[in-house]
Structure formats: C-alpha cells, structure tokens
Amino acid sequence: MGELPRRNVLKFAGVAPAALGLGATLEAPLAAAGIAGMAVFLDAGHGNNSALSQQVPNGRGGTKDCNTSGAATNDGYPEHTFNWAVVGMIQDALNQSGVRTQLSRGDDSSAGPCIDARAAAANAMHPDAIVSIHADGGPPSGRGFHVNYSSPPLNDAQSGPALQLAHAIRDALVAAGYQPSTYVGSDGLYGRADLAGLNFAEYPAVLVELGNMRNADDAAQMESPDGRARYAAAVTNGITAFLNGKAPAG
Ligand code: ZN
Question: Which of 47, 59, 68, 162 is least surrounded by CB atoms within 10 angstroms?
Fold first, then answer.
C-alpha cells in the first residue's frame, strides 16, 4: 500500500515533467494507506449547453437556475470542458490511492443534472468529501484561484469539516505555486451563501474556482494539457491531505 502515493507522483511527473512546479508533487502526503476505502464525490461544474433556467431549490429557501452555461476563455475554451478534464485526472489519482469516487455527470457532451440534483447525489454517496471543480469568469485583470465554502453554515459538516477541506485545498494550491485570487475572497478562501451545491451539502464540501478564464495568464494554463495536469495534481494533494487528517493514526 505504501507504493500507491509514489505511483501518483510518477504519474503526474510523467504527464508534465517540465511544467510541474516543485511543490506540485513533492509535497504529496505519503501516508495514503489510511485513506483507502474513503469516498469522494467529484462534481465537474456545468455541462454542455447547460444554461438551463428551470428553477430549482437553492438550499436556503429560495430558488436558482438549474444550471448556468459557465465561463470560457477568450479563445472559446469552455469551462465545462476544463472542469471535466481536471476532474477526470483527480478521479484517476484518487482511485490509485484506493479512494472510491463518484462523478456528478457521466460525460462532457450533455448538460448533466441540475445543481440541486448534483447535491442530492453527493449526499446519497455519504462521502468523506465533496469537491466541485470550476473556473471563474472574472475581471480580466484579476487572476488566481479561490476555494468557496458555505457561509453561514447550515449544519455541522459545513461549520467545521468543510472549512478544513477548504484550507487543505487552498494550502495545496499555494504549495504548488498558484496565486490566491487577486479579485475575490481572502487568501484564496471565500465563504458564501449563494451556491446551492454547498448549501445542500451534508458532508464536507467545497467549490474550487481554479482560476480566472478571462485572465490571459490563467487561461493559458487552463488551455494547456500540462497546465490541467498541474491543477489536478494540486487539488488531489489537498483532498488527500484532508482525508489523511480524518484517517486513524498509523
Ligand atoms: Zn463555474
């Protein structure tokens, strides 16, 4: 079992040896044996043609669109495709550590479920963590990532564990060399009440905006296969660190 994390490192190193920052893989937690058998629900945000205005519950007594179309780079690279690619690599890496995974949608060619249905599927899995992957469409001059969590919290999972998960992923992204957002949140973290997936979560949940698709520097990383592999490796490290924190010692 001790070889599993090493294989993860090699896998990512093989994808992008030149592009990987030192922090992206070398600081990966090595005690992954304890996380085998844990469960993570992965949501690749949005979907193809997913600007769906059907109203669904937002988790705080109001309603919201079923889904939005998501962002895109100025070159037209769509957020849903970026999210799908990164989630696939996170899934592969977690599975190699023996972590069970479930995805919120089955392909990148259809719209996928509404946001409230994704939250219900996540809760039905009874996972150790729920991670939604997105890329923002912010002001072109702003760059960097931010990790969203539910605030004010609506249950015990949202009040403590979700914050721990948010910090673990924020720390892993910083360790990999990523810039915390220059235009939203604080130190790469953003507590908010308007994201249905987080409001409904009964298990530790975050929504990660990995960067700003409208910023040229961030967009270049997102449009690059090596760049996407780096994002996936960093988020995987954060998830793994959080799961290790939950695992029994030894
Ligand atoms: Zn999004």
Answer: 68
Spatial CB neighbours of 221, under 8 Å, sequence gap ≥ 6: 211, 227, 228, 230, 231
Question: How is residue 37 annotated by DSSP?
Answer: T
Q: pLDDT tens digit string along 152-198?
A: 999 999 999 999 999 999 999 999 999 999 999 999 999 999 999 99
**CATH assignment of 37-246, among 3.20.20.70, 3.30.70.1350, 3.60.110.10, 3.40.630.40:** 3.40.630.40
Q: Compute the chain's Rg from CA coordinates.
A: 17
CA distance 183 to 180: 9
- Under 8 Å CB-to-CB from 43, ≥6 apart: which residues? 87, 103, 104, 105, 118, 122, 130, 131, 132, 133, 197, 207
Residue type at 33 in one-letter notation: A
Distance 163 CA to ligand 1 centre (A): 20
Continuous segment of H or E residues that includes residue 163: helix 161-175
Per-residue pLDDT tens digits for 69-86: 999 999 999 999 999 999
**223 part of the active site:** no
Which residues are registered as beta bridge partners of 40? Answer: 101, 129
DSSP SS3 for 6:
helix
Query: From the CA of 231, how far away is ligand 1's center (Å)?
Result: 15
Token pair in block for residue 167: 């910090």
Boundaries of every domain in the chain: 37-246
